[in-house]
Amino acid sequence: MNSEHQFSDGCERALNFERHINRIVIGQQAAVRNLTIAVFARGHVLLEGQVGVGKTTLLRTVAQGLGGRYQRIEGTIDLMPSDLVYYTYLDQDGRPRVDPGPLLKQGEELAVFFFNEINRARPQVHSLLLRVMAERAVGAFNREYRMPHMLVFADRNRVEREETFELPAAARDRFLMEINIAAPDDDAVLDQLMFDPRFHDVDALIEAMPESAIGYQNLNALGAAIQQRVQAAPALHKYALELWQATAQPQSYGISVSDVDIGQLLQSGASPRGMSYLIRAAKVRAWLEGRDSLWPEDLQAVYAPTMSHRLFLNPIYAYRREVLLPELVNQILQRIAAP
Amino acid sequence: MKRRRYLVKVSRLAALASAATLAAACAGGPSRPVEAFNLETPRPFGYQIGDTVPMRILVQTRPGVQLQAASLPKPGPLNRWLNLRRIELVEAGADAYRIDLEYQVFYAPLEVKALTIPGFALRFSQYGQTVEESVPPWQFTLAPLRELIARQDVDGEYLRPDQPPALLSTAGVRTNLALALMAAAVLGLKLARQYGYLPWFARRSPFKTAEKRLRRLAPAELAAGLAALHSAFNATYGAPVFGHRLPDFLRAHPEFGQIQSELVWFFDYSNRFFFAVQPDLASADCERLQKLCGWCRAIERGSR
């Protein structure tokens, strides 16, 4: 009874959390829903979009809402892994000092680690991030630092490609979702963004975000409870399996993408980790919808953000990735029936 | 002396010539209404039974003289052996007539025999008066087809049997029949497809298949029934239909909008049946499913 109460109560708080974000970052309901799912699925998020559409604002708002400590770092070309772990300086007495860097400074209280412009950082930094994201731990100063409540939020803009480093496949695979943020297309929202002074001062705007009643330190337990509680029926297992196989062999599901040899399009299908992330995200979505069983629409809702960045196209098609991938994902969802 | 005699001769000749001219002028003068009458006939020999004999009459009248069409003979049998097959009157220029006649002979002579096509009179009217111009009878000879006494040779009588009559042409009737049959076949196919009798067109009537499946549904086979109905919706849409994408389906097939609430119920029911871990379905609602399928079938057929 107690867990039942906690369960439904948590859902109400999560929806409340989502509503508050939507009040601060307007016109991005789909992205906010996906971010909410990621937070409760305990997954790292990569945001991608044009410059100035509110990626950073959105991530800061979520961090503010979650509570706990929050650190950010800007990706630059000369950023080195050690810059995340420690920094050196001369203190008042002129003696050299070594202090923990942004990753370690908050200790176990770190709730959100925010990596701005991640694709400007070098591959060395990405590889450090690999371990941090996978194990939520990093070795430094002859000991292991653990950050059990940490979520990595990263963003990258897609305007410039010069002096950037594409994220390695392994690092991308560790993100639960890649969420695309586009400028809102609703005229009323655009008008509000231009003229309402509330949106001109970002810091004050984010300050208005109340801290969620859930508490960042309870999120891991709640996330695990959701995964335990929301169940999938055999028919759904079959549907999810087909969704997976369709990424490996789209041609055998009658999937076709315009002027592409579908057998040559993908280098490989989705990874097992990717599929388990998909189910994790889908379960959170079912929970937010107030259900304790997984339905196909849950999988469909989170399929694009969880799968798109895990599918690797053949190099000859890679330059058209932004057109081909959404079409492929759409085709997969359109072709596979359940039951 | 000689010179004087010559002069006398010349003057006599001149008198004779002038008299002849006068006479000619009086003879062909305005008293003759038919200026020229010419009967053109074919060869008068070498005919056999059944042959046709064409004739042509060319008449040139004075202006104002009318040929009375009633004086022309009527087509048909003229006597026991002669038939007038055809007669045609053509006005060939001003006051000129051409009359084409075609006779057919049915006389069976035992030896070469002379026969006569009877003459007749053409009547012309001029200012209330009637003038006649007679067409003279025409004589020709007719030959028999065989000897007087038919010989017998090794193969029997040398007379050949009668030629079988030529068949009437049925080409037009056949064409019409073929067109009518084709039209009937096209209409029949269309009707059969409309009613879903063609199994290879089953894609067009997926609800018929589903209806068959649902009709003999036991409550224990609810999964199969739901799947049949799902596949009917998928086949109609051309892609899987999900409950949360129902608006897309209805946009593509607005005719199903009239049973929208039932469709919402169906997709929700199916989701709960297939995907809920502990289905809380009160009872297997086969009847409602069958009714829904019947409605869908009616919509698909266009009768609702």
UniProtKB/TrEMBL annotation, chain A:
Its name, as the record gives it, is MoxR family ATPase
The record's annotation in SMART domains points to: AAA
Alphabetized PANTHER family for the sequence? MOXR FAMILY PROTEIN (PTHR42759), REGULATORY PROTEIN-RELATED (PTHR42759:SF6)
**Which stretches make up the AAA+ ATPase domain?**
41-185
Q: Which Gene3D superfamilies match?
A: Magnesium chelatase subunit I, C-Terminal domain, P-loop containing nucleotide triphosphate hydrolases
TrEMBL record, chain B:
Write the record's keywords in alphabetical order, separated by commas.
Signal
Top-rank lineage group of the source organism: Bacteria
Query: How far does the signal peptide extend, from start to end residue?
Result: 1-27
Name assigned to this protein: Nonribosomal peptide synthetase MxaA
